[in-house]
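ok, trying the design again with the full structure, not the truncated one.
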């Protein structure tokens, strides 16, 4: 194919083979081949092609087209796995929600929650008998489910949910009701018109006593007609900033009766006579939410890697201004300000990717231990998953917006795919736990850990650094990666200690614990955020050192430069904290600024090669600005011609409105 000469030159400058980077990111040459074959099989299928770009469809048409694709995707997946083996939950989740899924269902899928929350909820909270009854039906799509927790009046604060499930001993049924408008379930994906079952979270009552929230399987629609079941009030919540094919819905209950055994009873139980048997640990219900948060980190890598690929390739092709008289307009990638917008965000892809790898491995370890009744690591996993979800979604959202801005006016076009990518990342800042609330949950764990550190008690690995500062070990600034990491840990420890001290002072002055926590909450959020940055830098460094050892010298050098850039970039971003809490000086910061600028210069010729190494197909990028061939302007015109307004030279509005106005001689 014809490739833009600018991109040809950029690729010739690259010091390493992008394919080597691709193999490293995929986990080996065999994995790359497997991924490519899967992408070929799905993306070449004409049933996944858009006859009309989705942005020109109505809200109703977008949903109907998404249902068609989602149903066909499942059938195609079953056929593919029968031919090639595999077919597990993780593989389907990657196809449904990963880069490939985003190419097929660009604005969300109406059955995503069926796989990422409905089935995991039954697996994690159902008894073996309940799993036997429901999982096969759900996996084969005999039923379509969703997860209904969030309500119109309550989201992250699940103890405040208003939906009630009262046990009737006479009939051995639970009776579900929505006592107020704010008790209506609001937001679950697929709830509007797609799902016919849901795992519903409600306040459970037996013998006149409330036993807190419990999960129930509730039939929402008739399995044949899809009409709402008696007492079920259900519908779609309407258009949103993004994810308009996800079919988010509302759900109310009016005396809806379900059998006793539709309460998921792996943990807590209700006997036939209404006796409530408490769960051994209330935190056992965290599993489903943590699974989604773990998956979300990798999703942020997928979205951000697409955005930086689009923006970097565009920046190599786009020429702008004339800083030197009588010389050609330079590529905008030659401007250091443009490099500063893009290359640290390229580095962020690696930081998040390696962190996501660690988190997935740790999640599986803890899940196995939970099955064996071991709960010791659960609080640590919960704390680190909360802050990682918050920081990674916020950073990714800001980074995608920076990429959009770096593409000027063309980045504002829907066809660039940057607005849609931004809407998907910024949505993640809110769903599955609002970010500020999640950081405060991590902060509670940090305050407890600080108290343990002061008392000389053992600390979990992710907070082990607190022990050094509880013993007043002196920190001396060093500009190495390890030295800067120690600096971040010093900041985190001192912020946590300061929060604990402030809370104690407020309590001593007679303030309630809740008020003391609230008045300190801004500081607590900041402490949790910097703790998370410590963790990301630590995992980026740790995993990079291991992976780099097996790479060619040139690729190793580039990746270590990206690591250095990421660490220095965030040090300068947090310079106020470094000056406040460590012995760094202004001179040290000047040196770091120069180091950042030199590193950008070194990475400038590698930028296109790095994003080529992400190996994201044009169909997945779905952007004329970021296609591999760099034919930006030709592709922009092709996309413009797809507008329905260009189907005829004169729109009827001219004769109806414009022409009379122009002839009216106002």
């Amino acid at each position: 194919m014809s490739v833009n000469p600018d991109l040809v030159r950029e690729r010739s400058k690259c010091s390493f083979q992008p394919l080597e980077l691709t193999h490293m990111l995929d986990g080996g040459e065999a994995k790359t081949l497997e991924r490519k074959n899967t992408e070929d099989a799905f993306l070449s299928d004409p049933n996944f092609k858009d006859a009309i770009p989705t942005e020109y469809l109505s809200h109703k048409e977008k949903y109907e087209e998404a249902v068609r694709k989602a149903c066909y995707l499942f059938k195609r997946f079953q056929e593919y796995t029968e031919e090639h083996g595999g077919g597990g939950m993780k593989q389907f989740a990657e196809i449904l929600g990963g880069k490939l899924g985003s190419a097929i269902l660009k604005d969300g899928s109406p059955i995503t929650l069926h796989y990422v929350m409905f089935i995991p909820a039954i697996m994690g909270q159902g008894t073996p008998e309940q799993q036997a009854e429901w999982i096969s039906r759900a996996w084969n799509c005999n039923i379509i489910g969703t997860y209904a927790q969030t309500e119109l009046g309550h989201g992250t604060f699940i103890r405040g949910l208003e939906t009630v499930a009262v046990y009737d001993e006479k009939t051995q049924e639970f009776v579900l009701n929505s006592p107020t408008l704010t008790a209506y379930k609001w937001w679950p994906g697929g709830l509007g018109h797609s799902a016919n079952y849901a795992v519903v979270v409600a306040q459970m009552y037996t013998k006149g006593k409330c036993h807190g929230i419990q999960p129930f399987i509730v039939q929402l629609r008739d399995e044949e007609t899809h009409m709402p079941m008696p007492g079920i009030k259900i519908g779609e919540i309407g258009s949103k900033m993004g994810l308009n094919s996800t079919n988010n819905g509302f759900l109310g209950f009016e005396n809806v009766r379900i059998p006793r055994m539709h309460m998921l009873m792996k943990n807590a139980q209700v006997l036939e006579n209404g006796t409530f048997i408490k769960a051994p640990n209330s935190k056992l219900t965290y599993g489903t939410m943590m699974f989604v948060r773990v998956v979300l980190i990798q999703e942020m890598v997928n979205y951000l890697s697409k955005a930086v690929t689009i923006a970097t390739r565009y920046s190599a092709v786009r020429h702008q201004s004339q800083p030197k008289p009588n010389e050609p307009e330079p590529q905008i990638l030659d401007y250091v300000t443009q490099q500063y917008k893009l290359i640290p965000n390229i580095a962020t892809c690696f930081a998040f990717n390696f962190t996501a790898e660690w988190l997935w491995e740790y999640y599986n370890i803890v899940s196995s231990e939970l099955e064996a009744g071991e709960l010791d690591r659960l609080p640590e996993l919960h704390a680190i998953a909360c802050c990682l979800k918050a920081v990674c979604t916020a950073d990714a959202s800001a980074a995608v917006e920076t990429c959009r801005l770096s593409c000027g006016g063309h980045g504002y076009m829907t066809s660039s795919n940057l607005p849609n990518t931004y809407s998907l990342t910024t949505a993640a800042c809110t769903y599955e736990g609002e970010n500020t609330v999640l950081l405060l949950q991590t902060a509670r764990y940090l305050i407890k850990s600080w108290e343990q550190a002061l008392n000389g008690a053992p600390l979990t690995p992710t907070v082990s650094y607190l022990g050094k500062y509880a013993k007043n070990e002196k920190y001396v600034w060093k500009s190495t990666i390890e030295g800067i990491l120690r600096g971040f840990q010093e900041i985190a420890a001192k912020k946590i200690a300061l929060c604990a001290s402030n809370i104690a002072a407020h309590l001593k002055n007679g303030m309630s614990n809740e008020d003391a926590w609230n008045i300190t909450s801004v500081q607590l959020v900041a402490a949790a955020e910097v703790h998370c940055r410590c963790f990301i830098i630590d995992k980026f460094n740790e995993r990079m050192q291991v992976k780099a050892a097996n790479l060619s010298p040139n690729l190793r050098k580039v990746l270590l430069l990206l690591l250095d850039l990421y660490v220095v970039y965030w040090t300068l971003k947090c310079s106020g904290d470094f000056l406040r809490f460590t012995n760094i000086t202004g001179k040290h910061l000047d040196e770091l600024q120069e180091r950042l600028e030199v590193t950008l210069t070194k990475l400038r010729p590698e930028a296109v090669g790095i994003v080529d190494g992400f190996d994201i197909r044009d169909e997945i990028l779905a952007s004329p600005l970021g296609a591999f061939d760099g034919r930006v302007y030709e592709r922009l015109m092709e996309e413009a011609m797809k507008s329905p307004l260009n189907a005829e030279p004169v729109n009827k509005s001219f004769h109806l409105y414009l022409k009379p106005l122009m002839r009216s001689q106002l």
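Keeping the full-length input from now on. The chain has a mean pLDDT of 94.
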